[in-house]
Amino acid sequence: MANGLRNRLAIRFAVEGDLRFISHHDSLRLFERALVRAAVPLRYSEGFNPRPRLSLALPRPVGVASRDELLVIELTEPLDPSAALTRLTPQMPTGVTLLGSEILDDRDRRLPSEACYAVRFEPSERDRVASHATAFLAAPHVIVARDTPGADSRGKSVDIRPFILSIEVDEGETRWRQTVSQAGTARVPEVLDVLGLPSGEYLHRVRREKVAYQA
After folding, report:
1. pTM, rounded to two decimals
2. Does position 157 have pLDDT exceeding 50, yes or no?
3. How much is the pLDDT for 88?
4. d(CA 166, CA 164)
5. Delimiting residues of CATH 3.30.70.580 domain(s) in the chain
């Protein structure tokens, strides 16, 4: 790291098909193996079990497809973004499409601030879903029960209304935009349930359309 600066690269990609069902951990492992095969000069952590320094900016819920994922990797030396894509693209499995890459300034933390989602449903359900959406947006609070890890199985109550910025209902599809921050966010299954779309049935129909970041 010359002059104390890190060589960081951001890679945008899409996930669809069966690969939308792999976990956050497995997604990182998938990219780790592909980057090694592509001979990308990865920087590793120190210690007894060194790992590549890479992260996904906004972990994707299992079962949700995405058109806008972001992988951030640290390199041991500068690498042209287009060259990185040329090396990496042949190593990616069906279901992952690389969309672009860019060098990140050391001050650019690339923190997610907003996310837009869409879910498909039968056109005959439009009026019912629209009614739920209208009631949701009109409510000052929408309290959901959220499971939490640990000994307390009762979970906790969370008001998800402040996180939802907008909801649009069209024929056969609903889109919503929500905030994402260290203070919290709404979980996709929670939004589906309050829209009258049981998450157990509709989660696999959701796709993440866009993520906005703050530098």
Report:
1. 0.90
2. yes
3. 96
4. 6
5. 2-104
